[in-house]
């Protein structure tokens, strides 16, 4: 009895231990990627990430991107110089399916851009994302000052 | 008939003989007095104790069939590997953030359905988890162990300007890569388990691989850098990146890093970029937590696809 049991047990264990999972395909967060948003002149995701922020009440998360001129601020903390381009991309957040304890970007809610022309004049543009929440009212002046004062994420 | 009998006797005596060969662990195994995890509700401690402690603490208890050769070798190796990945015996000596990190690690092991090992629950049904058990731990972590962002404080302190800082190599020989801030962000994460906010950067090889849909496995030359900052509460209610915590790298080279799943692992901590890890093998810690992603080349992140919108 014991013999059969032990032998069976051993076989069972080997079976369970070598049990295989199907190899899954590539995993890309396509929903959060910017593929087509009308009028958007360039893809902010191609620029240099400068800052990250969370808006806990709205459950959104944002990343501030900049062109090379704007990204100088990462090093010297200086004001944004003429020619700087900034984009603030805001996503709805979602729970990370692979790690309890993390939230990751879901779909794009809004994209905002700030251009500094050669004289340092600022222009603000708003682009609606697929996950736009129509209850929100973004006031241009207020948004401009919020975006320009986002503390950049410094690293040594 | 006679032959059959002989065979049975033969096998039987082999099995009996085999019982003389036993793993060392068995000699020292004794039913120790179980000590409750301090600072955790009793129900939560109980779940971990019944389902996990046999392999993840020094409080292992062996059932009679666990002691049989060859089963005992399997059990011993589970305990050895299990304690390497996660060891509750050190609980008392750990500070609260470390304890919480351990509980999040444990919870994610349960949620990924990897733990407790199914070969074990098949024979130790009491250790099987139901949804209730998991929810207990989840609720505890959400309500009690949440780390709150620090309130507004100047974060310019220690914004190291030293671009020519000498950075020491990681104990496994990997050199620091200073240029990752020019790479693209392939994702960001809010980690409410440890109160940080992160950017995951991908080098050009990584970005190209994503675009071509060739990310499983990732091609040689792929590098990820993950930076973490402490969450800091802003005046406008938003949470921003505050103090720099660390930067971690995964560098793909199937040949060079054959011993560590094809990736070179390294981490540098704090403003001074001190290399993390005490021994050359420190990266086994990285691998064991990334292991549930082994079907995805050990990578957690689901990256953005970064397209040039002006190129059709």
Structural class of chain A: alpha+beta
Strand content of chain A: 25-35%
What number is the mean pLDDT of chain A?
A: 84
Task: Give start-end ranges of low-pLDDT stretches of chain A.
Answer: 14-24
Measured as a percent range, the helix fraction of chain B is 25-40%
**Could you please say which CATH topology of the largest domain in chain B applies here?**
Chalcone isomerase
The count of helical stretches of chain A stands at 3
Describe the model.
- The complex is a heterodimer of chains A (156) and B (312).
- By secondary structure, chain A is an alpha+beta fold.
- Chain A has a single domain (44-156), classed as 3-Layer(bba) Sandwich (Chalcone isomerase), CATH 3.50.70.
- Helices cover 19% and strands 31% of the residues of chain A.
- Chain A has helices spanning 2-18, 73-76, 140-148; strands at 48-55, 60-66, 85-95, 102-116, 122-128.
- In chain A, strands 1-2-3-4-5 form a 5-stranded antiparallel sheet, with helices on one face.
- Chain A is globular.
- Chain A starts with a helix and ends in an 8-residue tail after the last helix.
- In chain A, 33% of the residues are buried.
- The model of chain A is unreliable at 14-24 (pLDDT under 50).
- Chain B is an alpha+beta fold and 312 residues long.
- Chain B has 2 domains: 13-146, no CATH class; 157-311, Cytochrome P460 (Chalcone isomerase, 3-Layer(bba) Sandwich), CATH 3.50.70.
- Chain B has 9 helices and 6 strands, in the order αααααααββαββββα.
- Chain B has a 6-stranded antiparallel sheet with strand order 1-2-3-4-5-6.
- In chain B, α5 packs antiparallel against α7.
- The longest helix of chain B is centred in the first third of the chain and has 17 residues, at 2-18.
- The radius of gyration of chain B is 24 Å and the shape is globular.
- The model of chain B is unreliable at 153-163 (pLDDT under 50).
- Chains A and B meet through α1, β1, β2 and β4 of A and α1, α5, β1, β2 and β3 of B.
